[in-house]
User: Which sequence fits this backbone?
């Protein structure tokens, strides 16, 4: 390419960039003068087209200019979702908390609780973790408790919500994850002779996560810890509970038998 041709190409690109910038500024000026209805439609259009960053900017503009309109109230709800999809998790949580605090009786406050639960939801094992058989029970569930409580609010306070069924399903997964981690910690204590810590952690799992598969293991650990501590009466009670629930004789705990029975991967 000759020097003159290269110069013409650069000039064309510069002109195009200037035109684009001018167009963007013109669009921004129009939005600055737009009504709440127009702003909301523009934001919703961008949201529907997966332009979450663009939607967020217009929703924020709408809230700043027309904070007391119906469109702004709806925008604050949509903004929670837009933040969540954009990956701005802290902003999503803050927006959800603000909406819940300011609109406790809003007919869609259940949605704010649901998205709040999704933000903190523990991710499922990815492809590499499944391939390498990663033991998720050893990963501290740092946000699982917060997610569990948000979903519990949806299920208990809004049982007829469109999101209640999915929230309940996610709660079951989180319950099992939290119970697994408690059992993992209890086993850690057992292996190091910290019988009191093991008993406390196993008791917490049994009392808090009823129905989780790993409760079987928690009861076995609790029996072993009570035996070491000389708590014969409680050990007998736990043994009776175990046999009543699982209908089998006491076997060894996971700490001595390797992979737990409920793991299929």
Assistant:
């Amino acid at each position: 390419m000759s020097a003159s041709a290269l110069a013409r190409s650069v000039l064309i690109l510069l002109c195009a960039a200037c035109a684009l910038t001018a167009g963007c500024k013109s669009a921004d000026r129009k939005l600055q003068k737009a009504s709440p209805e127009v702003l909301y439609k523009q934001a919703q259009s961008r949201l529907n087209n997966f332009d979450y960053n663009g939607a967020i900017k217009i929703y924020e503009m709408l809230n700043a200019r027309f904070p007391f309109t119906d469109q702004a109230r709806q925008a604050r709800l949509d903004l929670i979702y837009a933040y969540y999809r954009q990956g701005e998790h802290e902003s999503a949580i803050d927006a959800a908390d603000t909406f819940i605090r300011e609109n406790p009786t809003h007919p869609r406050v259940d949605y704010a609780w649901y998205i709040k639960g999704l933000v903190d939801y523990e991710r499922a094992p990815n492809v590499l973790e499944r391939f390498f058989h990663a033991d998720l029970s050893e990963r501290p569930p740092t946000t699982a408790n917060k997610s569990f409580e948000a979903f519990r609010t949806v299920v208990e306070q809004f049982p007829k919500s469109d999101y209640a069924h999915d929230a309940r399903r996610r709660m079951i997964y989180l319950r099992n994850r939290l119970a697994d981690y408690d059992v993992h910690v209890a086993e850690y204590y057992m292996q190091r002779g910290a019988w009191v810590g093991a008993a406390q952690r196993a008791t917490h799992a049994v009392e808090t996560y009823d129905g989780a598969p790993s409760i079987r293991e928690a009861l076995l650990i609790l029996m072993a810890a009570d035996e070491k501590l000389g708590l014969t009466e409680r050990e007998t009670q736990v043994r009776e509970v175990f046999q009543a629930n699982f209908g089998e004789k006491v076997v060894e705990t996971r700490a001595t038998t390797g992979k737990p029975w409920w793991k299929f991967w």
User: Anything to note?
Assistant: Confidence is low (pLDDT under 50) at residues 19-24, 253-265. DSSP finds 13 helices and no strands in the chain.
